[in-house]
């Protein structure tokens, strides 16, 4: 390997070590979201280190076709140390600031969606529900009124017949009438319950 290739390799590995420090700091910051789960902790740890190993080896492959030398590891360690000493506090501050900005934006979007979409839809549903219930109630009242109007001539005719018939026949009719009245009332109650369910 030429001196030029070695210098490029060392420079690339120093930058890669610096990047590894940033990636590790970011990973540790977000790991608090799954640290209570042992399964996810081990799974993400393995995935993180496998992905970083692949990235570093890909960079090494691009600069010297993947030749591993002792100074490669020293260069990575040097880059990582430079990050810890020179840039760690600054990066943590910038990362926290970025997280705060993104979190504020997400909360604002959720609040706007709630105010502009969810709440109007809720009140629209409430109004439509009240209107539908009122319509069902009106329909029930109209049906009961129509039935009463249609039965009025029959009722009058029956009253006249009862007045004319003998007392015994009147008693028989009264029993029959009570049974019919019970059936009609049960039918009307069924209709009323149906309309109430439809309104709700």
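Sequence proposed for the structure above (200 residues):
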């Amino acid at each position: 390997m030429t001196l030029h290739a070695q210098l490029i390799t060392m420079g690339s590995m120093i930058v890669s070590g610096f990047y590894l420090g940033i990636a590790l700091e970011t990973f540790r910051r977000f790991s608090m979201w799954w640290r209570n789960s042992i399964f996810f902790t081990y799974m993400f740890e393995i995935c993180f280190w496998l992905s970083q190993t692949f990235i570093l080896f890909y960079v090494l492959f691009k600069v010297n076709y993947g030749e591993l030398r002792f100074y490669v590891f020293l260069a990575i360690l040097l880059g990582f140390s430079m990050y810890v000493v020179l840039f760690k506090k600054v990066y943590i501050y910038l990362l926290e600031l970025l997280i705060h900005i993104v979190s504020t934006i997400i909360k604002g979007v959720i609040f706007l969606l709630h105010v502009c979409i969810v709440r109007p839809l809720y009140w629209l549903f409430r109004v439509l529900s009240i209107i539908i219930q009122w319509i069902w109630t009106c329909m029930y009242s109209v049906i009961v009124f129509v039935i009463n109007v249609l039965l009025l001539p029959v009722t009058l005719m029956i009253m006249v017949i009862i007045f004319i018939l003998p007392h015994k026949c009147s008693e028989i009719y009264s029993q029959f009438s009570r049974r019919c009245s019970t059936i009609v009332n049960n039918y009307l109650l069924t209709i009323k319950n149906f309309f109430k369910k439809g309104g709700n």
